[in-house]
């Protein structure tokens, strides 16, 4: 059964960071999730030079485990997370490799871990209010009941596409790396699907607010990747209680798909928005319009567009 979202436990990452190739344990993912949430809730934000503290009691509260287990997981994370690395493609199309942490301390007497994130992580977590990077957000409550790192990572990758309701092709090699698999882990497709993919899909469908399924894509007789269908089980209220203003884009959220697409087609011609187009959308107005229309079905993503369009002098009369 899925859990309802609150306004205070939102994990937000840029799509670039969310799609990074990484190899984290479940405890490590959870510590990073808590750091993101607590930095936002406390108002302290994140800075490479400012450590953030996560306590065992906080871990117990969110993930409903024993205090002893929380202490063990935090101590274990202090020893491993500092050495973890990830890689992503930057805005210039180049591969960037980074660590998650620049510094870590385990405060034994207090049962706390003190983390300092690297600049690449801080940028991917805290600078989500600009117009260059789209971002992914979800309620921590939705993943707190997942018992596998694979399930948690798959949820993060799929929730990014909940507005579109369908993902692009997740190419097999990249997808495996995004889930944290080494080259020799579950190398046979039968084992990968049984031990990783199907297990993760079933757990997501059972525990979270998403209903997902997948289609395997073949080239000849070989599976080259997967395309996922992603839907919300229940239509939830927006994460923030915002009064609707009929002079803003927010008015288009409850409209039909055709109405959203009609408006999105106009937006796609705006020079100020053209550089937001990704991939094929960068070469085709119709594809870009469809991309925008999908974004406009998500109230939180609408606010992202609204803020930028107001900055560039958007007028309702467009």
From TrEMBL:
Domain of life: Bacteria
InterPro entries named in the record: Initiator_Rep_WH1 (IPR000525), WH-like_DNA-bd_sf (IPR036388), WH_DNA-bd_sf (IPR036390)
SUPFAM superfamilies to which the protein is assigned, alphabetical: Winged helix' DNA-binding domain
Residue ranges occupied by any Initiator Rep protein WH1 domain in the UniProt entry: 10-158
Family indicated by similarity: Belongs to the initiator RepB protein family.
Protein name stated in the entry: Initiator Rep protein WH1 domain-containing protein
């Amino acid at each position: 059964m899925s859990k309802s979202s609150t306004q205070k436990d939102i994990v937000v990452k840029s799509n670039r960071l969310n799609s990074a190739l990484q190899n984290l344990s479940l405890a490590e993912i959870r510590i990073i999730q808590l750091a993101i949430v607590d930095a936002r809730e406390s108002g302290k934000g994140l800075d490479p030079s400012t450590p953030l503290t996560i306590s065992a009691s906080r871990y117990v509260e969110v993930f409903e485990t024993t205090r002893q287990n929380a202490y063990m997981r935090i101590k274990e994370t202090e020893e491993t997370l500092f050495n973890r690395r990830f890689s992503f493609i930057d805005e210039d199309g180049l591969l960037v490799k980074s660590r998650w942490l620049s510094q870590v301390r385990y405060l034994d007497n207090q049962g706390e871990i003190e983390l300092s994130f690297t600049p690449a992580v801080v940028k991917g977590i805290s600078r989500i209010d600009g117009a260059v990077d789209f971002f992914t957000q979800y309620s921590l409550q939705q993943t707190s009941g997942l018992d596998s790192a694979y399930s948690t990572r798959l949820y993060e990758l799929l929730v990014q596409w909940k507005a579109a309701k369908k993902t692009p092709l997740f190419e097999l090699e990249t997808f495996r790396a995004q889930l944290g698999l080494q080259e020799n882990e579950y190398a046979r497709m039968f084992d990968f699907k049984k031990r990783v993919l199907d297990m993760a899909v079933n757990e997501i469908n059972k525990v979270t607010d998403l209903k997902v399924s997948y289609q395997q894509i073949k080239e000849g007789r070989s599976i080259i990747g997967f395309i996922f269908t992603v839907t919300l089980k229940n239509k939830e209220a927006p994460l923030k209680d915002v009064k609707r203003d009929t002079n803003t884009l927010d008015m288009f959220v409850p409209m039909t798909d055709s109405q959203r697409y009609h408006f999105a087609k106009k937006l796609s011609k705006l020079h100020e928005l053209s550089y937001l187009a990704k991939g094929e959308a960068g070469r085709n107005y119709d594809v870009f319009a469809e991309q925008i229309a999908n974004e406009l079905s998500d109230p939180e993503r609408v606010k992202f567009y609204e803020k930028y369009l107001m900055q560039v002098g958007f007028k309702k009369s467009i």
